[in-house]
Amino acid sequence: MKEHKSAIGAGIGLLVGIIIGSITNNVGLWIALGLSFGAGIGSMFDDFKP
Asked: What does the alpha-carbon distance between residue 3 and residue 31 come to, in Å, rounded to a whole number?
């Protein structure tokens, strides 16, 4: 089974978004931003072949 790094990136981005959102009292914005940035970074690493 192949591991997709975009899914891992989205999960980490979601976690970071929840943490930052709870600090700034704007959870909805930061969940969306963390999820999109995490998925973007994860898909960038998904194309990377070492």
From this structure: 23
Q: First vs last Cα of the chain: how many Å apart?
A: 18
User: Which pLDDT belongs to residue 1?
Assistant: 56
Structure token digits, residue 11 = 């999960």
pLDDT digits (tens, 9 = 90+) for 2-39: 677 778 888 999 999 999 999 999 999 999 999 999 98
Count of CB atoms situated within 10 Å of the CB of 24: 10
Quote the CA–CA distance of 10 and 31 in Å, as a whole number: 10
Distance, CA of 43 to CA of 15 (rounded, Å): 17
Entry field: residues in the chain: 50
Rounded to 5 degrees, φ, ψ at 4 are -95, 120
